[in-house]
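Supplementary notes for students who missed Thursday's class. We covered one full example, reproduced here. Read the sequence, then the structure, then the short commentary at the end.
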Amino acid sequence: MKGLLLGIIIGLLSCNLTAQITSGSVLFSGNANYNKTKNDQNLPSNPIVELESESFSVLPSFGFFVNNSILIGVGLKAEFEANSYLIQRTESSFYPFLPSTYIIQTSYKEKTRMFYFNPFFKRYNGITERLYFTTAFNLLVGSGETRGGTAQSYTSKNKELSLNFTPGLTYFFSPKWAINGSIGQIYYRVRKESIPNTTNTINNNKETEDEEFGVDASWNSFRIGLQYLINKNFQK
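Structure (token representation):
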């Protein structure tokens, strides 16, 4: 799947644009994504972890065509995520009047909200008069927070920098309106998370940094949205 995604991106970059879009056009767009997943994990240390994750994001943006194929613009992205954990651990009993083993369950929840500033560069390659293959390069700079905990709650401060290269399709069903969708991306992401020192416990006042690079071709990367084109040169 990853090799196919790379092949499509490289092959369609050389297509020529048809006359639907012209230099000077202005494009307003909005994209949304919703995901819900549930996973069970058996860890070597005995516990069974059940994870339920739900996320939603929305990205309004504005762009300007500098020529007949290149769009440069900026967007603002809001992302919300909720994770629920159920940890089941099997323990042995040392009392004769109790069963030989028993199960301890612990629940844990996290809620994250992030806001991003998103300058972007997008190229439109014509397939037909109204259908375009797009390739977008996005820079996202974001900050937000995560709230969660079990017996003791905490709030962490998050910062993120990411770059991604995303293929997609745009179809103009009228002179001004279009629907667009994308799936898959090549990405690089750096995320820092810090927990302020709220108590005297050693778990507070710590900072972690995660760095990722890869190709995501899963359905979780699917985005869909609407676009509105202002083009003075388009003839009805």
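Commentary. The longest strand covers residues 101-126. The radius of gyration is 23 Å. If anything here is unclear, bring it to office hours.
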